[in-house]
């Protein structure tokens, strides 16, 4: 039996939260059957089947407030993560910690208000396990959003970067959500990743941006995920720039790998919440408050953008 320890965590505001973790997380890996229990708990309580799942990035999960995406959700059914069997807990400020089912412009969706990050102490497979739960519920299309630092010098704070590819740096170091025995019921042992981000959904989203008159703030770029929780050094950022990274964050890549493993179609975008500092004479310090403020500032545009992308997926692709 793995030894269980109690850990004190802070949510970024100095508020202490307690969570149990296991020393041997691999042994503790959640089985297909356990995830079926999780999905059954949810489907027993929700009378519609969402085909589209959304993961809200930092500061973007404030969608429950007036004028927000969650505000636009109808027939909402909310599940705090602590009530869902086998689900991890959110510990980061700006990540509410609820799974919300509802209709967006009449389209049934499920939305994660709060995701799990490696730096919270969860292994990558656990950070990404809600994606598998979504799959078991019936979700075929994943819209993963995140807050990220802009490395591309043409990006401004508040811009949107459609993710066309990623560099799995944590994977380079041997850390991957698919590590361990492969369960073929989810997907194959060696999934390809060269079509990770659906080209057609990206083209459609560019058209949505054009129709909304926001093409000037929308880009296509390459995202990378670092382990965090510290922001990057100048030397690290210079290296990432040389590698061809346009935006850097601490999430999403493991979710996308897990989603592609189980044949979900993926659309991802980053909200550029800060411009990465790549010289030693700039004294601005990146911080999580700014990240959340920009999320809030862009809430209205993101709501309209996501609503239209969802409607488009539903009309054009969902069977
Ligand atoms: O990727 P999301 O969850 O949007 O959050 C981003 O913002 C936080 C840093 O401010 C980090 O967690 C980073 O990954």
UniProtKB/TrEMBL annotation:
Domain of life: Eukaryota
Annotated binding of a purine D-ribonucleoside, by residue: 232, 274
Pathway stated in the Swiss-Prot or TrEMBL entry: Purine metabolism; purine nucleoside salvage
UniProt keyword terms in alphabetical order: Glycosyltransferase, Purine salvage, Transferase
Stretches of the chain forming a coiled coil according to its record: none
Gene Ontology annotations for the cellular component aspect, listed alphabetically: cytoplasm
Transmembrane helix found in the keyword field: no
GO molecular function: purine-nucleoside phosphorylase activity
Residues at which phosphate binds: 58, 95, 115-117, 147, 251
Presence of keyword Transferase: yes
Catalytic activity from the UniProt record: 2'-deoxyinosine + phosphate = 2-deoxy-alpha-D-ribose 1-phosphate + hypoxanthine; guanosine + phosphate = alpha-D-ribose 1-phosphate + guanine; inosine + phosphate = alpha-D-ribose 1-phosphate + hypoxanthine; 2'-deoxyguanosine + phosphate = 2-deoxy-alpha-D-ribose 1-phosphate + guanine
Record-listed E.C. numbers: 2.4.2.1
GO biological process: purine ribonucleoside salvage
Domain Nucleoside phosphorylase stretches: 51-309
InterPro entries, A to Z: Nucleoside_phosphorylase_d, Nucleoside_phosphorylase_sf, Pur_Nuc_Pase_Ino/Guo-sp, Purine_phosphorylase, Purine_phosphorylase-2_CS
Family: Belongs to the PNP/MTAP phosphorylase family.
Summary of subunit composition and partner proteins: Homotrimer.
Summary of the function given for this chain in its UniProt record: The purine nucleoside phosphorylases catalyze the phosphorolytic breakdown of the N-glycosidic bond in the beta-(deoxy)ribonucleoside molecules, with the formation of the corresponding free purine bases and pentose-1-phosphate.
Protein name: Purine nucleoside phosphorylase
Species name: Brassicogethes aeneus
